[in-house]
Amino acid sequence: MDYFFYILAIAVMVWSLAVNSRLNSLTKKYANEMVASGKSANECAKQMLSMHGVYGVVIDYKPGNLTDCFAPKEDKIYLSDTTYNRNSITAVAIAAHECGHACQKHDGMLVYQIRQVIAPFAGIASRLSVWIAVAGVVIMYIAGRNFFDLGYYISTAGIALYGLVFLFYLITLPIERDASRRGLKYMKECGWVSDAQFKAAKKVLWAAGDTYAVALASSAVTLIRLLLMRGNGRRR
After folding, report:
1. pLDDT of 66-121, one tens digit each?
2. Angle, to 10 degrees, between the axis of helix 148-189 and the axis of helix 110-142?
């Protein structure tokens, strides 16, 4: 199992490097190509929200590169330096994707609502769970036989807590893919891009979505590692 784990971990690491390299390459490539309609990302975002019946969502600027996001509590779509008021394929594609999240909230998408509920708990779990699991393992194998069961239960609690992180990534991937599909749908229907540019936008958004697939795989590898460290609970 140890050999299998290391092979799996290396494979995920290589995949992560490839995905990030492809994403950076695509976003830079299409950041300099103006969309056929000439519309800016801000204009497209406002049109998409209006057509979907989403009102009250503010388009705002956020400094940085690819810091674009939808903040559901604020009802704001933040667009970064490479997106805000830009009319490139990359800018319009990213803005449409973030609008997709606003549409998910407006539609009451169940899995989106579930993610919003567990997100703060998953954030806490990601910071604490691994340390709890490792502490339990230390108690199991260093503190002595009398504390083995205690260490096992502590480690199991840490692993269960990390399961919340894995669940978060598991439901995030389809949410991100759905937001991209929604954005691409409006990009095509509204004629913001040509047919060739639509294919380019799809590449950008699917490459961005692949980063969430990598995150899910990485969390699965971590979960497997914690389980291997804890073992099956038998005293040695």
Report:
1. 899 999 999 999 999 999 999 999 999 999 999 999 999 999 999 999 999 999 99
2. 150
What are the tokens at 200? 């380019």
CA distance readout (Å), 90 to 45, 93, 129: 13, 5, 37
Cβ-contact 158, 133 below 8 angstroms: yes
Residue 201 tokens read as 């936008």
Distance, in Å, from the CA atom of 23 to the CA atom of 16, rounded to the nearest integer, reads 11
Bridge partners, residue 197, by sequence: none
Global confidence as pTM: 0.90
Q: Which helix (H) or strand (E) holds 135?
A: helix 110-142
d(CA 105, CA 113): 7
Domain ranges of the chain: 2-230
Both tokens of residue 124?
């806490």
Helix (H, G, I), strand (E, B) or coil at 96: helix
